[in-house]
Write a structure and sequence with these properties.
57% of the residues lie in helices and 4% in strands. With 191 residues, it is mainly alpha-helical. It starts with a strand and ends in a 12-residue tail after the last helix.
Length: 191
């Protein structure tokens, strides 16, 4: 059962992500009657008591939610969602639509990749990476794949668009950055 929180002109519906609503509220309600946390921290002129009243309100309203609703809100806040429940039919339909959208788009970078190594860019496991990252939203997935191929061309050259980039493709500066620990690639998901 969904519940709804409200405070003056703020309303938070547990069916929609709290974080999404906070961002939407900040964008749509510039003349709010209460101070609400904004994304522009540098120009924030609110006082601690004003911020404390907001924090107290949110904390008190969170305690009114069920454990499941609270967990959903916190998962949304931390960008952790439910796992996608894929079926073979869903995968098949998404891959077919993915191919159709790609053909309609007629992207030069995709044509370059297919001319280099068709099996790489048409491999279902390659395409499923983008579909799963975008919860099977085909248009977003195609955009992401096109962007991925474009960035590979930009940063590694035209000859590496349709193959995996390996350590041999990195120069000394790239390897130094990789070994610095600045970037960490985690195995699996957060949960």
């Amino acid at each position: 059962m969904a519940s709804s929180l409200s405070y003056q002109n703020i309303s938070i519906d547990s069916n929609r992500g709290c974080f999404q609503q906070c961002l939407r509220f900040g964008q749509e309600q510039h003349a709010s009657s209460i101070p609400f946390p904004s994304l522009n921290v540098q120009n924030d002129t609110r006082t601690r008591p004003e911020m404390k009243s907001i924090e107290d309100f949110l904390a008190s309203e969170m305690t009114k939610l069920s454990v499941q609703e609270r967990s959903k809100v916190l998962d949304d806040l931390h960008c952790v969602g439910e796992e996608l429940k894929e079926t073979p039919e869903m995968i098949e339909e998404s891959l077919a639509e993915f191919d159709q959208v790609l053909q309609e788009r007629n992207e030069p970078i995709y044509h370059l990749a297919t001319s280099q190594n068709r099996s790489y860019v048409e491999d279902p496991s390659f395409r499923l990476r983008f579909l799963r990252a975008n919860l099977h939203d085909v248009h977003k997935s195609v955009n992401q794949m096109i962007g991925f191929l474009s960035r590979k061309e930009k940063y590694f050259g035209r000859d590496k668009v349709a193959r995996d980039v390996t350590l041999d493709d990195l120069d000394e500066d790239d390897i130094e950055l990789l070994l610095s620990g600045l970037y960490h690639i985690q195995d699996g998901t957060d949960r």
